[in-house]
Design goal:
Rieske Iron-sulfur Protein, 2 domains, 11 strands, 17% helix, binds FE2/S2 (inorganic) cluster
Length: 179
């Protein structure tokens, strides 16, 4: 009998069997998938969890933000970026700047009244933070804004976000004056 060529000793799998999956390989695949799934859910939850806001903060003065303009600020912690937009002379709105897909910062596009996430082309309506297009499934969390004199204050109340039991969508008049 002729001796096997050298490469057949190095790669002892026959071409006809190369697509067969052994029981061990299948069990390994199932085990790895279960671990990845188990770890992935808490990580995703942690990524999307927004810390509870505890107190109001002054984020701008009226002079700082022109109508149609915006200002970035940190809320509810120094690690969380938010975006304040000014719709009219008296109406402001504040949203988390973290995309609800994988937390990339969104950008305000005044000409289309949208927030745009450049990472995977996610689009949100800047009226209420709802998703218009792209992979995000949840609206951008929106905070109540109050105005006292020329101070613009964000209060610890989420209008529309992942932690609210019901996503109550308010009208454009979400800015409340503080007496
Ligand atoms: S992180 Fe924003 S669309 Fe993916």
């Amino acid at each position: 009998m002729a001796a096997k060529p050298d490469f057949q000793n190095s790669y002892p799998i026959k071409q006809s069997e190369e697509h067969r999956v052994s029981r061990r390989q299948f069990a390994k695949f199932c085990g790895c998938s279960a671990i990845a799934l188990g770890a992935g859910v808490p990580i995703k939850r942690r990524l999307s969890a927004l810390p509870k806001a505890e107190s109001s903060i002054t984020v701008a003065t009226a002079e700082e933000v022109p109508v149609g303009g915006y200002k970035l600020f940190n809320y509810p912690t120094a690690d969380h970026l938010c975006i304040l937009i000014r719709r009219t002379e008296t109406v402001y709105a504040a949203f988390s700047q973290s995309c609800t897909h994988l937390m990339c910062p969104v950008h305000f596009r005044a000409e289309t009244n949208q927030f745009v996430c450049p990472c995977h082309e996610g689009f949100f309506d800047a009226t209420d933070g709802t998703v218009i297009a792209g992979p995000p499934r949840r609206s951008l969390p929106q905070y109540f804004v109050s105005v006292a004199g020329n101070k613009v204050i964000v209060v610890p109340e989420i209008i529309n976000g992942p932690d609210t039991a019901s996503s109550t969508l308010h009208s454009l008049n979400e800015t409340r004056p503080i007496s």
